[in-house]
Design brief:
The protein is of the alpha+beta class. The chain has helices at residues 2-59, 64-75, 92-107, 136-145, 163-168, 186-195, 218-227, 231-241; strands spanning 127-133, 154-155, 170-181, 212-213, 216-217, 245-256, 261-262. The protein has one domain (2-69, 109-271).
Length: 276
């Protein structure tokens, strides 16, 4: 009887050890799969948002605010609820409510000024829309020397006589969506993998929950190395320290202008144009 009891206790102990080893891995696989699926969905919506922004820009004189609002509309299904607001967008009325809430938050009640900071702890916007063509350094020269009959206020979108104008009328935008991951446990793990993606080879074979690198946990090591990359990554690390795990998703899109580019003093791409 004692022999059977001892064998039963050994088997129970073995089962407990196996469970302790397997359950965390299974939880991570399940939660990680859900979070990866949501990130993939957000990436698709970022691609769609870049398309929507470019499409809005080519028919609205390259107006940055209109392009930003078009991008926001595309990102609606992926957005977290604002404080005191719902986030369902499965009906037109609910989608309009969420869109109005975010529009008021991002653009103010006048709708003309884009709020450059959304994640206040890190100083990041919800998304960043940049015009990469035409470049900001080219705009002044284009408006200043072309189209004297238009008093330097706009550029003909269908003028094919000047190679500079043909190039400038290819509107290219880059949309970076700072997507907040919200699945517990999986969010900080995936965030650390993203932040230190260039240094993962240094940690090959390590168990992340138990091993330390340079006196730090492996995930903390990846976060620290990633934060050294640039200002955006430092901001992402600051947010992670406050429990917000944000991953930037980037998409680009180009379309030929179907309306005249307006002078950057009033409308046009200079509000968000870059030189890169």
């Amino acid at each position: 009887m004692d022999l059977m009891s001892a064998r039963s206790r050994r088997q129970s102990g073995q089962a407990a050890v196996e469970t302790a080893l397997i359950v965390p891995m299974m939880v991570f696989l399940v939660l990680g799969t859900i979070q990866l699926g949501m990130v993939h969905h957000a990436r698709l919506m970022t691609e769609y948002g870049a398309y929507r922004a470019a499409r809005a820009g080519i028919v609205n004189h390259g107006d940055c605010n209109i392009m930003r609002k078009a991008a926001l509309s595309a990102l609606l299904p992926t957005l977290a609820p604002l404080a005191g607001q719902g986030s369902r967008v499965d009906t037109l009325d609910l989608a309009m409510d969420v869109h109005h809430s975010y529009s008021r938050h991002l653009f103010g009640f006048a709708g003309n000024t884009f709020r450059s900071v959304f994640y206040t702890a890190g100083g990041l916007p919800l998304f960043r829309l940049e015009v990469v063509n035409p470049r900001s350094s080219d705009l002044a020269g284009l408006f200043g020397t072309y189209g004297s009959h238009m008093q330097g206020l706009e550029i003909d979108y269908d003028d094919i006589r000047d190679d500079r104008v043909i190039e400038a009328n290819l509107l290219s935008i880059r949309l970076t969506y700072f997507y907040e991951m919200r699945i517990p446990f999986a969010n900080w793990q995936l965030h650390s993998f993203y932040m230190g993606r260039e240094y993962l080879d240094e940690l090959r074979g390590l168990q992340f929950e138990s091993k330390r690198v340079g006196g730090q946990a492996a995930t903390a090591y990846l976060e620290r190395r990633g934060a050294e990359r640039d200002d955006d990554h430092r901001a992402l690390s600051t947010l992670a320290g406050r429990g917000q795990y944000v991953m930037p998703l980037t998409a680009t899109w180009s379309m030929r202008m179907q309306s005249n580019l307006f002078n950057n003093d009033t409308y046009g791409p200079a509000r968000c144009a870059v030189d890169s």
